[in-house]
Amino acid sequence: MRDATLSEFLPELVNIRHKLHEMPEIGLSEVKTSEFVAGLLQSWGFEVTRGLATTGIVATLKRGNSNRSIGFRADMDALPMQEETGLAYQSQHPGAMHACGHDGHTSMLLGAAWALSQDESFNGTVHLIFQPAEENFGGGKLMIDDGLFDRFPCERVFALHNWPGLPAGTFSTRAGAMAASIDVLTLTIKGKGGHGAQPELTVDPVVVGSSLVMALQTLVSRNVSPHQPSVVTVGSFQSGSASNIIPDTALLEISMRATDPVVRKQLQERVEQIARFQAQSFNADVTFGWQVGYPATINNAEAVEHARAVISDKFGEEAFVELAEPLMGSEDFSFLLEEVPGAYVLIGNGDSSGLHTTRYDFNDDILERGAMYFYHLARSALV
User: Fold this and answer.
1) Strand (E) positions, the chain?
2) Which among 22, 199, 295, 339 is least buried, having the fewest CB atoms inside 10 angstroms?
3) What tens digit of pLDDT does each residue of 359-374 get?
4) What pLDDT was estimated at residue 2?
5) Number of folded domains in the chain?
6) Same domain (yes/no): 171, 59
7) Is there a contact between 177 and 296 (Cβ–Cβ < 8 Å)?
């Protein structure tokens, strides 16, 4: 059987994307989105399971008698931002916006779903994973905790993410580390407050915090190999209320990113060690409040080669560009890749506004290519 095409369905797919863009919902609150997506999938003959991670969906389509299976994931949630695009289809939910293109990711996977529903020739099972809460609560892990791969086993799993600045429709990825882990530490320094005119009677947490911030600048440069990308950022330093009062406490918000699990653990251990020693040298105390985030996104080499081969064969060799370095941002598809081998791939959004900006919009011109990428992956895997 010849490959399905999206030509006749593409206008409707664009309309679907615009409808999703109008109804952005924050993580674990994607009620309207979930209902809309599930209705479409059911109308195309998929077996739809709802309720994983509250609003998540798994849509299953089986052909033939093979036990082989493949999974594709799209994130559905939006960001708490006020849209400023002025588009005819801009957000109808004040304070929420699809500023990361998850409306487009969902639409591309829906396009693949439609194409697969028109195809009787593949042999095996396709699981389409529509995931909530990528931006905030780690919806990928929540779906796994709800039995995602126990209930819907996949031999490999793939995801696409649009990327502004990369030529529209160009794909890019790499084997191994694709994106960094993220962990956040709220560090509280406990000193002894007093009058600004009598600092000798105090333990000044502002001085302790300042010394600690400077000490952390060597955490990466003198503890981690330059061949292992990692970043430590003190993004917030809060203390005090007036110029003549030495406060009792100071609060630091610190983020840590690494592309290697061993380095991630090393950063966590060393930041505590440095903070304790710095505090002790000033007779202060410290406490740690960890928000352990997403692990590094590690692509499977064979899955990357599968993706590259499909892209080159179906869209031309020029459609694939090897990603030279891992991204230092983070992505909760990493949780899925810890369970099942797969690949996280970028697709160029062209010369658009950046992700997480109020004027960003997903490029409709890449909908067909993204959808057909998933379709061809399924066809090539399930033969």
Assistant:
1) 47-52, 56-63, 69-75, 124-131, 156-164, 171-173, 176-179, 183-190, 194-195, 230-239, 245-246, 249-258, 285-292, 297-299, 320-322, 342-350
2) 199
3) 999 999 999 999 999 9
4) 62
5) 2
6) yes
7) yes
Distance CA(304)–CA(282), nearest Å, equals 51
Task: Tell me: is residue 356 an annotated ligand-binding position.
Answer: yes
The answer to whether 228 touches 259, Cβ cutoff 8 Å, is: yes
Which domain CATH number covers 256?
3.30.70.360
Letter string b/e over residues 320-351, b meaning 16 or more CB atoms within 10 A of that residue's CB: beebeebbeebbbbbbbbbebbbbbbbbbbbe
pLDDT value at position 333?
Answer: 98
Q: Look at residue 254 in the predicted model and tell me its pLDDT.
A: 98
pLDDT value, residue 367:
98
Give the strand order in the sheet containing 230-239. 230-239, 249-258, 183-190, 285-292
- Final residue belonging to a domain, choices 243, 273, 292: 292
pLDDT of res. 3:
75
Q: Return the pLDDT at 5.
A: 83
Point out the residues of the chain with pLDDT beneath 70: 1-2
Partners of residue 78 on adjacent β-strands: 26
Same domain, 222 and 303: no
102 marked among binding-site residues? yes
Q: Domain check: are 352 and 220 in the same one?
A: no
Candidates 19, 55, 114, 151; CA nearest to 374 is 114
Per-residue pLDDT tens digits for 328-339? 999 999 999 999
317 marked ligand binding residue: no
Hey, what are 304's tokens? Answer: 């990357």
Q: Do residue 59 and residue 118 come from a single domain?
A: yes
Kind and range of the H or E run holding 220: helix 205-221
* Domain final residue, candidates 292, 314, 334: 292
Residue 35 is which amino acid? E
- The reply to whether 376 sits in an annotated binding site is no
pLDDT at 144: 98
How far apart, in whole angstroms, are the C-alpha atoms of residue 24 and residue 98? Answer: 6
93 is in an annotated binding site: no
**Percentage helix, strand, coil for the chain under 3-state DSSP, each rounded to 5:** 35, 30, 35
CB of 346 closer than 8 Å to CB of 171: yes
Residue 20's nearest CA partner among 68, 83, 77 is: 77
